[in-house]
């Protein structure tokens, strides 16, 4: 389409606005032309009437009378004086008058209506015009055909139309060129820079330099520059982290193999009859087990690329009951796990990924209670909230320590228990974000901890 660019749309709008302005100017201009035309007829008619009345008692010759009427382009001429109406000139058998216009009492709106009626009423009507000459106090009354007036008005209207079109085209083209130079050209420079930067975003030399003279475009260029600088830094950091992650994964893999061998040897040491060895062996075995588990979780986190969730509306009660059943088998006798979910509560989620999130939350809560060495309870509750579903996992454990709260949802730093890596919460948070929702800490303290998972009905 022609109007698919900013400059062409501006050209079209400029042309439309100019046409509207010219249309508003057209009516008063044509009305003023008609008024001047009729006023000129009145002036010519007065001169003809005065020429005849200057010799009272003499009847003008028919040829002279016809010549005077033709020169004024009228049919009859009459002068109105105080209490007297005197016919000065007239054609033989004048036709009947169709419309009378009194210029002495007409308002601007009435004059405009009369001017437009000239174009709308067909035929060569006979009209009567009443007015005053500019240098006389006498009122003149003339009758005339409207055809010559219409022809003169049409010619004048065409001149206005052609002039307006020329002005409109010229102004529109100037505005079109101005828009292309002052707006489109800077925008294209920004677009070209974005394309150039996209080809190699890690090259700091491709970052745009603000140089537009317009304040708005300069602000946009400055914002784009800041964004590109931050993105370049993030990409460099990502590369460094990827390289570091690859090295850590290799080290973790080799370290896991070494620790597995050490664990096998520790199992044999545990069979020793030496009392001191028997007391130390279990601690050694537990330490090795935790080290191996940390290596495995590190490797798993490095490989983790969660697929997009397959969202569907599902009932939460069966899924949460399954989580409770599985975790009750693993939890100690001191921990009670139960669900508090109405059968009709549903959520829009991926069943497998939601199962993993709830399993991580419940297992962390059970381990916190067990690690405190006291009995406690974990409750999973769900309810509708606005245009989404809220699932809470609450425990009666000792609460999160300050360091764990500061580093919550950060890998290898947010673990609340000794030997924990905090990867479970990180993975659960990523899954929640993939659903368009959020996972956060609602509250924590001596009375327990509550995590809140929100799942919206639509992204």
Automatic annotation (TrEMBL):
<protein>
    <recommendedName>
        <fullName>histidine kinase</fullName>
        <ecNumber>2.7.13.3</ecNumber>
    </recommendedName>
</protein>
<keyword id="KW-0902">Two-component regulatory system</keyword>
<keyword id="KW-0472">Membrane</keyword>
<feature type="domain" description="Histidine kinase">
    <location>
        <begin position="250"/>
        <end position="459"/>
    </location>
</feature>
<dbReference type="InterPro" id="IPR036890">
    <property type="entry name" value="HATPase_C_sf"/>
</dbReference>
<keyword id="KW-0067">ATP-binding</keyword>
<dbReference type="GO" id="GO:0005524">
    <property type="term" value="F:ATP binding"/>
</dbReference>
<dbReference type="InterPro" id="IPR003661">
    <property type="entry name" value="HisK_dim/P_dom"/>
</dbReference>
<keyword id="KW-0812">Transmembrane</keyword>
<keyword id="KW-0808">Transferase</keyword>
<keyword id="KW-0418">Kinase</keyword>
<feature type="transmembrane region" description="Helical">
    <location>
        <begin position="12"/>
        <end position="30"/>
    </location>
</feature>
<feature type="transmembrane region" description="Helical">
    <location>
        <begin position="160"/>
        <end position="183"/>
    </location>
</feature>
<keyword id="KW-0597">Phosphoprotein</keyword>
<keyword id="KW-1133">Transmembrane helix</keyword>
<dbReference type="InterPro" id="IPR004358">
    <property type="entry name" value="Sig_transdc_His_kin-like_C"/>
</dbReference>
<dbReference type="GO" id="GO:0000155">
    <property type="term" value="F:phosphorelay sensor kinase activity"/>
</dbReference>
<dbReference type="InterPro" id="IPR005467">
    <property type="entry name" value="His_kinase_dom"/>
</dbReference>
<dbReference type="InterPro" id="IPR003594">
    <property type="entry name" value="HATPase_dom"/>
</dbReference>
<dbReference type="Pfam" id="PF02518">
    <property type="entry name" value="HATPase_c"/>
</dbReference>
<keyword id="KW-0547">Nucleotide-binding</keyword>
<feature type="coiled-coil region">
    <location>
        <begin position="217"/>
        <end position="244"/>
    </location>
</feature>
<dbReference type="InterPro" id="IPR036097">
    <property type="entry name" value="HisK_dim/P_sf"/>
</dbReference>
<keyword id="KW-0175">Coiled coil</keyword>
């Amino acid at each position: 389409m022609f109007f698919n660019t900013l400059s062409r749309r501006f050209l079209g709008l400029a042309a439309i606005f100019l046409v509207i302005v010219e249309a508003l100017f057209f009516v008063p201009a044509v009305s003023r032309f008609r008024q001047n035309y009729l006023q000129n007829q009145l002036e010519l008619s007065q001169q003809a009437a005065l020429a005849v009345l200057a010799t009272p008692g003499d009847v003008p010759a028919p040829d002279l009378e016809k010549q005077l009427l033709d020169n004024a382009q009228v049919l009859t001429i009459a002068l109105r004086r105080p209490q007297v109406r005197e016919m000065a000139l007239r054609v033989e058998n004048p036709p009947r008058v169709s419309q009378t216009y009194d210029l002495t009492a007409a308002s601007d709106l009435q004059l405009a209506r009369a001017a437009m009626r000239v174009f709308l009423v067909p035929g060569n009507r006979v009209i009567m015009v009443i007015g005053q000459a500019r240098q006389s106090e006498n009122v003149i009354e003339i009758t005339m055909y409207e055809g010559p007036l219409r022809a003169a008005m049409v010619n004048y209207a065409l001149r206005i139309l052609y002039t307006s079109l020329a002005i409109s085209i010229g102004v529109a083209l100037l505005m079109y060129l101005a828009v292309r130079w002052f707006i489109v050209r800077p925008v294209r420079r920004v677009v070209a820079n974005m394309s150039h930067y996209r080809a190699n975003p890690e090259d700091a030399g491709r970052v745009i330099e603000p140089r537009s003279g317009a304040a708005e475009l300069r602000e946009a260029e400055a914002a784009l520059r800041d964004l590109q600088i931050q993105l370049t830094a993030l990409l460099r950091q990502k590369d460094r982290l990827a390289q570091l992650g690859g090295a850590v994964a290799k080290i973790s893999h080799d370290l896991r193999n070494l620790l597995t061998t050490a664990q096998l040897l520790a199992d044999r040491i545990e069979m020793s009859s030496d009392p001191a060895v028997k007391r130390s062996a279990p601690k050694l075995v537990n330490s090795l087990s935790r080290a191996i588990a940390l290596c495995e979780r590190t490797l798993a986190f490095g490989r983790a690329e969660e697929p997009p969730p397959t969202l569907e509306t599902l009932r939460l009660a069966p899924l949460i009951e399954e989580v409770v059943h599985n975790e009750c088998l693993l939890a100690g006798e001191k921990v009670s796990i139960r669900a508090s979910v109405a059968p009709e509560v549903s959520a829009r989620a991926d069943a497998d990924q939601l199962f993993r999130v709830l399993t991580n939350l419940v297992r962390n809560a059970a381990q916190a209670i067990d690690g405190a060495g006291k009995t406690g309870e974990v409750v999973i509750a769900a309810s509708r909230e606005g245009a989404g579903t809220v699932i809470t996992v609450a425990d009666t454990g000792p609460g999160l320590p300050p360091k764990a709260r500061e580093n919550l949802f950060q890998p290898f730093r947010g673990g609340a228990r000794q030997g924990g890596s905090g990867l479970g919460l990180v993975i659960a948070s990523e899954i929640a974000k993939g659903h368009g929702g959020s996972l956060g800490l609602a509250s924590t303290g001596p009375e327990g901890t509550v995590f809140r998972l929100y799942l919206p009905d639509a992204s």
